[in-house]
Amino acid sequence: MFISYETFAARARELEKTIGEFCSDAGRPASEVKLMAVTKTHPPIAAEYAARYGLPCVGENRVQEAVTKMEAARADIAWELIGHLQSNKAALAVKSFARIQSVDRKKLVTRLNECCERESRTLPILLQVNAGRDSAKFGIPPEEAAGLLEATLEAPRLEVQGLMTIAPLSDNPSVARTTFARLRELRDELQDRYRIALPELSMGMSGDLREAIGEGSTCVRVGSALFGPRHP
Ligand SMILES: *Cc1c(COP(=O)(O)O)cnc(C)c1O
Asked: Where are the domains of the chain?
């Protein structure tokens, strides 16, 4: 049995309160941090809950799972891809998602731009950076991010809005802190160097929200704190 809407709404309210407290601790207005509901592994109704509650977006990490869910869910909400995207799924991803947060290589930039050309659409994207240098994570190494950004700036159909990262799993919160601080500093460098705005910093999940918000996150991606443990 999946959770009820009432359970979901109570968790979402609690979470918004927690986010508000972390924002005030960091001296930031709570309006700067958007809450994304990560619905991966959960049934389509999870996205309906998020829409009904009024959350701005849901995140999925697999293209096919997301598309099946989009068709089943009656949810007027923005779907974003937050997981690794294989080039052969780029066309379907471009047809399906409002934004892709996991752009991590030049080949994918080229491919996405071609697919957008075919669909006559522009695609908002984030560049996924492996800011924690975690061999278990996707994402471009920080020192290669400038090159990837240059490629996206030459792709007329892609609109790069910022950066995304996933912190390495660790019991020590300073690992996440350092990772998020590095992403923010990298964003600042890229903004200065290319004279563009990269306002979005997508960082923070259920277990590291305080660290992410303290380091400037504008989009937290929360799954288990809203929906419970992932269904395998
Ligand atoms: C699963 C996932 C999340 C959410 O993780 P929780 O710990 O369940 O909050 C966030 N971001 C990405 C990229 C994910 O794959």
From this structure: 5-223
- Kindly state the helix (H) or strand (E) to which residue 125 belongs, with its residue range: strand 123-128
Q: Is 224 in the pocket of ligand 1 (CB under 6 A)?
A: yes
Q: How far is the CA of 101 from the centre of ligand 1 (A)?
A: 12
Residue by residue, DSSP assigns 183-195 as HHHHHHHHHHHHT
Amino acid identity of residue 93, one-letter, is: A
Query: Closest Cα partner for 59 from 68, 50, 3?
Result: 50
For ligand 1, the distance from its centroid to the CA atom of residue 222, given in whole angstroms, is 6
CA distance 180 to 177: 5
Domain 5-223 class? alpha beta
Q: pLDDT averaged over consecutive 10-residue blocks of the chain (232 residues)? A: 96 98 98 98 97 98 98 95 98 98 98 98 98 93 98 98 97 97 98 98 98 98 94 66
Longest dimension (CA), the chain: 51
DSSP 32: G
